[in-house]
Structures are given as C-alpha cells and as structure tokens.
Amino acid sequence: MPILYNTGDWFTLGHGNTYRKIELYNMEWPETDLENMIVCAAPYGGPMAVVKDFTKFVKVTGSTKPVIRIFTASGHLISSINWNSGNLLAMGWSECEELICVQDDGLVLIYDMFGVYQHTFSMGQEAKDTKVIDAKIFPSGSGTGVAVMTTNFRVFLVNSVKEPKNRQLPEMPKSIADPNCWDIVTEERNTFALVSRDREIFKLHQGDSVCMLQNISMQSDYKFFATMAVSFNQRDIALYTNTGHIWMGSSNLKTKYCEFDTGRSERPKQLAWCVDVENSRQADALIVTYSSLLLVIGISGDSNVYTYDPAIFLIPEMDCVRVLTNSCHEMIQKVPKCVTNIFAINSQESSSFLFEAHKKFREKSHQSDEYLCLIKDTLEQAVAECVEAAGYEFDPETQKSLIRAAYFGKAFCACHNPDSYNLMCRILRVLNSIRHPKVGIPLTYRQFNHLKPNVILDRLVFRKHYALAIQIAKHLKLPESRILEHWALHKVIYDKNDEDVARKIAEKFRNPIALGVSFCTIAKKAQEIGRTKLAIMLLDQEPKASARVPLLLKLGENKKALLSATHSGDTDLVYMVLLQLKETTQLADFQMTVRSFQMAQNLFKKYCQQYNVSALKDIFTQEDDFASQAEFTLREGFAEMAGLETALSITANAYKKAHREIEAELCEEGRKLIKQQKVFSEKYSTSFYGLSVHETIKQLLTLGDLKTAEKFRNEYKVPDKRYWWLRIQVLSDNYQWDELEKFAKIKKSPIGYEPFVEMCIKQKNTDEARKYLLKCREDRKVKWYIRAGLSKEAALAAFDLKDLQSLYIIHMNASKTNDRQLINTVENYINQLSPKK
C-alpha cells in the first residue's frame, strides 16, 4: 500500500512530523541548463522567469544582452524579453503575476508574463547616483514591495509597486566592514529590514530614526552570517553562518527553535522554509540546497538528504516548497494529518479502516463488513477525512480511491450531508485541469482555497485559456461575464477581420443581459485602438440604449445615436444627444439632423421654449410652420402689451398663410379692439388696455358715454341680453335708481326683471326691489321676496300659489327671529292649505 499510494517518498523529521516529496512535472522546456541561470518563480504555481547569470564566467554565443524567458511551471515557454535596458540586478513576481526587474541604477521595470511592458518607477535619486548592489522583492500589507541596498549600504523601499512611495530606512552605524546578508520582514502592515554585518544583526524599522542591534543567542562558533531566509508567512527566519551552522527561530529573533550543524563549509545556494500545510502560521522545516544536494532540516534538529544533478532552485509556497531542476519539478510538503491517518503504516484511525473496508468491498471480501463494524460510531468522521485527504493529493488515482471510499462510507451514514463531498469533487476536477502540463499551474488544495475561484479564473483568462475558464466557471456555478469580455477584448486586439470579429462576439454574447456582459465595453476598446468600424458594428448589438448612445456620439455617429435614443423612448437620453450635438456640430447640420426625428424635434422645441426662445423662432421659420409662428408671435405680443397691436397683425397674416381663417379673423378683431381702446384711453384719460369687449362696454357705461357704448356693442354684435345686464349692473353700482327705473320702462326687458331685483338686493335697496318684484313671474316671486327679506309679502304670495314648501321655509326663518305675528300668519296659511283629515 505505501508504494501504491505514494508513501514511498515520505520521511519523518522528529516525532509526528512527516514530509513527502511529490513529482509535479517532467520539465518540457527546451535544452536549458539551469546551472548558469537565475530562476525566479511566482508563488501559487505561477510563471517562472529564467535569465543567464552574468556573474558567472561562461561561454556566451550570440548577443551579450540578457534574454529573460518566461515559462509555465511545467516548462512551456510563454514569452521572451530581450533586455535592452540597464544592468539587471534582481527579479521577482508581484501578487498579480507581473515580473519586477530591478536595475543597478534604481529603476524598477514591470512586465506582464507575456513580456509586455507595464510601467517603470525609480527607487530615488540617491539609488540612481550611488548605484544599487542588491534588491529584494517582498510581499507587504499593500501588495508587493521592493527594497534596494545602495553601495553606501543605505536601504530604500516601496511597500507597493502599484503606488510607489519611496522611503529610506534608518542607517546602520559606520564600520569598515560591509554587510554580509540582509532580508525584508513584513509584520502585518509594518516592514523592516534585517541586515547582518559580521556577528551583528541590525533591525532597520520603517518609521524609526535609528536602527536597533538584535541579540542572537548562538552556541556555535562563527564569524559572520553568510545568508538568511524568511519564511513565506514572515514568522520564521533562518541564519546560515560561515561555519555551516544554522540558527532557526522567529523572525523577531526573540525565540530560537534550534541550531543545526550542516557539516559543510561551502555557502548554500538557497534557503527556504516549508510552512505547515494545515497551519499557515507554523513552519516546521527548513530546506537548504547546495550545488547537487538538498537538505531538509526539522526544527527539532532532525534532517533528511536528497541528491540531485547540479542546479537546484527552491520556490517557497504558503504550504510547501517547490523544487526545480533541469529535468523535473517537485514539491516538498508536510503530510497533512488526514492523509497520515489514512496511509500511515499500521494506522488505527477510522478513516484508514474505511479506506480498507472499501478496498475489501471491491475485492468482494467479507472483511469489508468487519472493518465497518469497527468504525460504526466514527463513520461520519472517517468519511470527512477521506474527502479532505483527496483534496491534498496530486495523483488522480489516489484521489479517486479516497473519493470512492468516502462515497462508500456515506452510504452507511444515517444523516450525512453530501455538500462537502460534492464540493470536493468539483474542486478536484478544477485542480486536475489546471495542473495539466498544458496549463501548468500546480496549485495545492490549500492554495486554491486561499486564492478563491475568481482569482484562478482571472489567471486562466490572462493566460488565454478561455475554454477551460468557461468550463470551470460553469462547473463551479460562477458568472462567465469576465471571461467572455476578456476573450472578446483579445479578439478585438489581435483579429483583424472586423466582420468576423463582430460575428463571433455576437454569437458568444447571445444574451448579454443574462450573461452580464456588455458590447459597449468591447466597442470602447475597439474605438481606443482605432477600429471605429468594428466599434459601430458591436454597438449595433448592444441592447441598452443608455450604454450604446454615448459611445455612438463619441464615434461621431450622430444620426445613429439620435435614432437609438428616440427608439428607446428615454427623453433624458434624447436630451443628452441633442445638447451634445448642439455643442459639437454646425447649426445647419444640427437642424437638418434633428428634423429627421419627430420626437427629437418636439423635445428640442420644448427645450427652446424654456431656454432658447430665439432658436425656437428660427425652427418655425425654417419649417414654414406658420401656425406655430403665429402662436409664438402672439405669446411675444402678450409678454409686451405695447407691441401687441403689431404682433396681432403679424399673427393674423401667419394664420392666413396657415389657412386658419377663424384664428386670423379673431386676431384682426383683437387688433381692431386694441386700436379702439387706444382712442378711448386718450379720449377719457383712463386706461382701456387689456380689457375685453365686455369690460370695454362696461367701462364706457361707467363713464356715462351711452352713445359710444351703444355704437361699440353694435359693432361687436354684443347680444341684447348681455348689454342689458351690463346697463343694470353699472346703474345699480352707481346708485342711479331713477335712471334704472327709466331704463326698465324703455321696453320690455329681454332678460326679465329678476336681474333688476338681484342688483337692488345686492345694493341692499329693498324699496327699489319691490318695484321690480311686482313685474317678476308669479312662480318666481316667492323666491325673490324671501331673498329680499320681505317675509310677509313672501307668505302671501306663497299662500296665493298654494306653495306649502315655501311657507314652511318662511315659518322656519320667522322662528329664528321670533316674529310671533308672522309665525301666526304663516301657521294660519299652512292650516288653511293643509288637507283636512
């Protein structure tokens, strides 16, 4: 079983600390001799940058300029960078998988994995002037940082390459000795440098004014520290002395784990901590490499040795260390406890018994039931351990065996929740697909959970593994929008056939709203790189007018923008297009464009009516819209009464041109009225402006000019009934009762005599009202007697008309005033008219 399930490469360092070596890839790169190379690999299974080590004297063929080649973890070439800049000093990778290159003049150049230049920043003028002798790329709380040491041994750093702010760390005390080694440590959001000089170690803390000397308790004899290494989690440090002794402890140098004598005098190639796979805050082993030897040292002092062909490179990870050689790519990792429980020799754990039970079941052995009986109380835990262990395995056959064992076990669990099982099956499919040599991202299960699926999808997309990314997104039930958009952007940049690109993108974006993708995003990129035709073709597919219209305007497609806006029915969008066109196009072109769209034309007229009246007038003139011209002129005339007569004349002519004869005639009459009112105003020294025909006659009657009023009312064909009303109203308002009586006797009133009574009552003249009440219709007299307050006459008239209802009203009014005589009279009338029983 150990050989079958990859336990042959397990080894133990101290009690309970089991480690294993797993082969990831047989390297597929072309003949590459790493012995004379510098290798810099990104964490989390990222790309690797390889460049010749020019500090070594080797025969060079071809150009002497460095060529940085970037490979996948499986050895497939991604890109090459012909280095034409300054003296390359150090390389590293950012958290976004960007290659960071530091020169000896303090310039930091950043490229993506495809060798595309991104940006540059400087580590400061002093670094440029004095030159840099070493550089470190390190993880920080702000992302990825860069630190440099100059020839005068000053340290400068930036905490984020995205927002580089250069800071100088405190200087070390002056000495004739040079620093031997140094490294950067990050504690949460604090960063400091540890610099070794002879037997001393100085802590250069960001923000401090002076450095601090650190005390190291070391029993072994040594002269200086040759090299040091900080763990991936920044919590541990290893110091390698000139005598081959190693001090291992916490990165604050306060806790010592152990001292170890390697027994070797040569300087090691590399040191790297192996962090615990289950506890990222703990590192239990240090890996040291020499030219052809790899030494694994536990913090308990135990060790294990592997021999290799020359050229070994270590790549620290959050839960393991990857080992890269010319021919293979391996991983050294502390074996997770769940895996140990299952595969350790003579393991008595329930998960191991479950695994054996499934194995016996497949062999059709009765022993399967015996194993299950042993673990019936802990079967749930055994299933969970088998599922978890499958996640930590790299070999697909081992994964299958563990998953099948878990599936077998959960069938005997009464209330097992299958969610964790189903999720692990999904994750394993994803991990196996991205670990494939063609993809070359050897992520562990813990790294997968740390990065999250969205980050992994982004990395696949950036590597242009679009089909795989979409399949993974579907498998994990994640949105595909970012993948599709990145694919479309790549098509826009690199595929030169506009029709073909537009067709392919339209096929993929069949339902853009449901997919959460936007044609506008792609069209904007096409516009940025000068592919205007393609941008327009893509915008034709965009369903959202609010997104489509602004970009059409930017592309100069004014008519299309206006058409889209009007079809959307969004008035705000139409106004946006109109106002932008008004600002950016010639007036004549603007007007011609707007005239083609009725909705836009109407909205622009409405806008002009509020904010630009002169433009509205121009529109009416250009369109020969005589009716609108007439209305516009009329409004202007009413706004300024002094010019109303002229405005009415112009309005009348406009209405005639519009074949609106009635309106034209009314305007002519209005102009004629204004002209006459001017004459009246001058004649009587009182204003007639703005009065209607009715009010003008009333004003003339009030002034006593009956002759002119009569003539005026005949001219405007004012009916007799209205004229009589006016005469009655004016005479009563002026208390001309005699004249009112004379007027009533001229001829029979066309409006009856009730208006006479009403005006008299209004002026509180009951005596005059009596005169005209006698002439009113009999059936109306009672009402007017009551309104005039003539209750006795009202009662008598009601009695004569046998109007009991009116008598009751009169009786109620009399009761309110307590008029006993009237009450008795009314009651007598009521009794006489009431039917006798």
UniProtKB/TrEMBL annotation:
Domain Vps16 N-terminal stretches: 6-421
Domain Vps16 C-terminal: start-end pairs: 517-831
Record's keyword terms, sorted: Endosome, Lysosome, Membrane, Protein transport, Transport
Keyword Hydrolase on entry: no
UniProt main location, coarse: membrane
InterPro entries (UniProt xref): VPS16, Vps16_C, Vps16_C_sf, Vps16_N, WD40_repeat_dom_sf
PANTHER family: VACUOLAR PROTEIN SORTING VPS16 (PTHR12811), VACUOLAR PROTEIN SORTING-ASSOCIATED PROTEIN 16 HOMOLOG (PTHR12811:SF0)
Family that this chain belongs to: Belongs to the VPS16 family.
Name of the protein: Vacuolar protein sorting-associated protein 16 homolog
Organism: Lutzomyia longipalpis
